[in-house]
Amino acid sequence: QVQLVESGGGLVQPGGSLRLSCAASGFTLDYAIGWFRQAPGKEREGVSCISSGDRRTYYSDSVKGRVTISRDNAKHTVYLEMNSLKPEDTAVYYCGTDRTLYCSSRESDYSAWGQGTPVTVSS
Asked: Quick one: pLDDT at residue 2?
């Protein structure tokens, strides 16, 4: 059974940093893993993705230059390092997989999701 568990969210001041983790079980983490977020009253949006194999990375324009995605297959974990956080980054962050080797930007392609970890950026 595929299971993804996010952690690392919390309250941080503007300009601060957080590292989110996505721990996988039930599969070998050789799939692409994506991070999405959903702010209150808004639709879920893609943030970043890392493919399998070549570990190609993708970032949304809203986080590019401030966020780094990485993966440690030995630990079955994908990380999202977020720096220079802004109040508009406040959202619940979810990791998911489309169960392929390559990233998809379409939320509908993702068939397994974690429960989410909340991030609040506020002074």
From this structure: 81
Structure-token pair, residue 39: 């702010």
Residues 63-97: tens digit of each pLDDT: 999 999 999 988 989 999 999 999 999 999 999 99
Rounded distance, CA 88 to CA 68, Å? 18
Q: Which string of DSSP letters, residue by residue, matches 84-113?
A: S--GGG-EEEEEEE-SSSS--S-GGG--EE
- DSSP E strands in the chain: the ranges are 3-7, 10-12, 18-25, 33-38, 45-50, 57-59, 67-72, 77-82, 91-97, 112-113, 117-121
